[in-house]
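Repro:
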Amino acid sequence: MCCTCSKSEYVRCMHLASECELYVATNNGFLYLAKISDTGDVAWTQLFCSQEEIPIVCMSVFPGCVENWIALGDGKGRLTVVRIADIQTPELNLSF
């Protein structure tokens, strides 16, 4: 479970998946989705948090028609793949 700590959080990498979807990964191991509305409002959703809050250092997004797949590399050399079909219930598909 992730906790809020006193360390500042900052962006390590980001990917614009479409004109209204921006994925953002941070130094604290979080993956967020920023959905941008037609009016310019932004809704942020936390999709994933690494177990040890290890920095995410690289990210690849593979957008699809119904779901997106996101591959995350962390500071300990681990790969995590997250499937996003529904942003309310993102699914961890692979971690090694």
